[in-house]
Amino acid sequence: MWVFSSAAHQHKLLLLWGRRLHQPVSASRVGSQFASYHITSTLLCPEDSSIKPVVKKRHRHKPVASDGWRDHERSVQSKVWKTEIPVLQTQKQRKGDVHRVSSELRKLCLEDSPAGRERPGIQKLTLDYKAESHEIVFGIAPCLLALTQGRRKAQKLFVKDGEVSHRASVLKVCEEACRRGVQVQRVSKKDLDTMSSGRVHQGVCLQASSLSYITEDRHLTPSSKDPPLWLVLEGIQDPMNLGAILRSAYFLGVDRVASSLCDSCPLTPVVSKASSGAMEVLGVYGYENLEDMLKLKVAQGWQVVGTVGSEAESRIPVTQCSAFKMTKPTLLLMGSEGEGLSQELLSLCQTLLTIPAGRDLFPGIESLNVSVATGILLHSLLSSRRSTR
Prior knowledge:
This protein is an alpha/beta fold and 389 residues long. It has 13 helices and eleven strands. The protein has helices at 7-22, 27-44, 67-112, 114-117, 140-149, 168-179, 189-195, 239-252, 269-274, 278-281, 290-299, 343-346, 370-387, and strands at residues 134-138, 154-160, 183-187, 204-209, 229-233, 256-260, 284-287, 303-307, 318-320, 330-334, 351-354. The longest helix is centred in the first third of the chain and has 46 residues, at 67-112. The protein is elongated and about 60 Å long. The protein starts with 6 loop residues before the first helix and ends with a helix.
């Protein structure tokens, strides 16, 4: 509440208010206030134009303005907007620049990330990697040994694009491919997964001709003066088992690996990967009739040694592997995963070896995997051969 001390002072205030009421409203002030409202709302809420400040509207009687007054108001407002609009345009331009820079940075980030490299920048496969005359070898060791051994005809090396291609092991494979004139192509992980059927490829796949069993009987010069040892496989069907057996045979120093061609696993890239590339080095001989080959070797003075479980009963003498001494050329026979050796091959064995268990076994787990048993028996026989020198 206003309190006036004197009537004279009250009279002066009434005169002052009356003069202000009769003064025309400044259009520049109205325009500047109107423009400043828009500028403030734009700066405070640049991202969401739907958010509008609450403005209390005052109901005023619109004065009847003349045409001259309207022209004057338009000219004043145009001058105000000419000075204020560049500020608004600058804000909008800055906002657009931010989005433009953000998109460029986003693009760079996508190009640097592994997922981004696999999207648009990777070249597509130009060859049919499922050609009948070729197959896909996958993995560091299989691809490197396939290139160095020269038993396959290599056509193209596919390498995963990204940081994987800079690893020393991958670079070594690429260098070997370039040295032999094999084209190297960078592809996405998805392409490598498709080529290797989802198996572990370690970032490299090689398109090359297939390997098969050696069917012609070649005469091999003995690597040492010790009696030779041949590993004979009958009906091994699991490629992982076959690969593990080949790896152990190569590591321990078997002179030859022979296999039946009937009901046996072919020499596929899966076998090569399971053997860690040993299949690329070690030639595997295939025989249509193992029985005929064994009879021929027996006539030449070789001994045939089979395998049997520790609890099996047989008319053929059973000996623990640790007690057997290898003193002459020997053929070690290993049967299939489920059935073991056939009766035809068992009848040709002079001795059956067994691996003793170290404890009482529960039913169902009283035997070893064929690849594990093969490794143990090979090590035992080759150790006894060296001890009899």
